[in-house]
Design brief:
355 residues; mainly alpha; three-stranded mixed beta sheet; three-stranded antiparallel beta sheet
């Protein structure tokens, strides 16, 4: 059997095994992704277009520089990511839906062949996202929807620059590009939380290098980031407190769980966060937990991205490696993990030295 026929049959078998709902989802998101590619224009063409604003052109030029710096630093062969630009009709490129049961904080996982499982689903079409959200709620799930302005195919395709990137200032934009490009050089299957936190960590470490900050400027930023990391740790601790409260009322009606959440937010969560931000001199406008609508799903979504970041920083510090050496260490641990018999998850394997 030739390779093309084998791949075709494999795809058919995979789609058949998933059921109609997931096939429809993949088909719709495939169209959305195809649209991003089809509407992408070569950067040089965009830069030559007299109808494109100068501010947009400047952003594209800066992204080109960020990209070159990234691959040179990690000594990786440049890929064709961000060599084209797609100008979107909407502010956001996609919309993420996270769902959780009403009686615990635990993200609903959606699994797909090859790419693995994810604690959320993304939709290019906002109405489709809302429909999926409504269907989940009819089945009893608690949901959370949020717009996403940065998106990548995790190295599977050559992603274009998206006009939604241009909302960010230079430092945030650089960190965003470094984050998304990190997925193209390192990605662990079925480890969404770890992948996101690693990309956040590496991108954040590259910023002072790229902008050649003075020691004073870098120290100021590190203090600011540490304040926000401390804030994140406060949220994580409070979520665990809420989870404990849920366990104490195990088996109660949904209304009891809702009352427990409402009372927790009013009497514990918001007062504690407000007090903490005041203590750390974080302006209330930047004290973001106060400005979010929290439920089990949004708490679950928060934990997906933040919970392991502390372990990553601690691991690098314990190993006393520079950033490039740390990446090589991760790659080596990946190879070691592939040879292990007891597969408890790469995160557990990676952070064992810290236990």
């Amino acid at each position: 059997m030739d390779n093309l026929k084998f791949k075709s049959m494999l795809i058919v078998l995979i789609l058949f095994s998933m059921g109609c709902t997931k096939v429809q989802y993949i088909f719709e998101q495939g169209l959305g992704q195809a649209s991003l590619f089809m509407n992408a224009r070569e950067n040089n063409k965009v830069l030559e277009d007299p109808f494109i604003p100068d501010k947009t052109k400047e952003k594209i030029k800066k992204i080109k520089n960020y990209r070159a710096f990234f691959y040179k630093y990690f000594k990786k062969k440049e890929r064709d990511h961000y060599k084209k630009t797609t100008l979107l009709k909407n502010d956001a490129v996609t919309y993420l839906i996270t769902a959780s049961p009403f009686d615990r904080i635990d993200p609903k996982k959606e699994c797909f062949p090859i790419v693995g499982c994810f604690p959320y689903l993304g939709f290019f079409d906002k109405e489709s996202a809302k429909e999926y959200k409504r269907n989940l709620e009819k089945k009893g799930w608690v949901t959370w929807i949020r717009p996403v302005y940065a998106y990548s195919t995790l190295g599977n395709f050559n992603d274009p620059i998206l006009s939604s990137f241009f909302r960010y200032d230079d430092e945030v934009l650089a960190e965003l590009i470094f984050h998304e490009l990190f997925h193209t050089i390192y990605f662990v299957k079925n480890e969404v939380q770890l992948n996101e936190n690693l990309a956040n960590f590496f991108a954040g470490e590259l910023i002072p290098m790229y902008f050649s900050w003075s020691p004073e400027r870098e120290q100021k930023r590190r203090k600011s980031r540490e304040s926000f990391k401390s804030l994140e740790r406060q949220v994580v601790g409070l979520v665990k407190d809420l989870q404990t409260r849920y366990e104490k009322i195990n088996g109660s009606s949904r209304s009891i769980y809702q009352k427990t959440l409402t009372r927790f937010l009013k009497d514990k969560f918001f007062p504690h966060i407000r007090s903490f931000c005041h203590k750390k001199n974080i302006p209330l406008k930047k004290c973001y937990p106060l400005n979010k609508k929290w439920n089990n799903a949004s708490f679950a979504g928060f934990l997906t991205y933040e919970e392991e970041s502390i372990k990553i920083e601690k691991l690098k510090k314990v190993l006393q490696l520079n950033l490039l050496e740390f990446l090589k260490y991760l790659e080596q641990k990946d190879k070691e993990y592939e040879k292990t018999v007891d597969r408890k998850g790469f995160s557990t394997f990676l952070f064992t030295p810290l236990d």
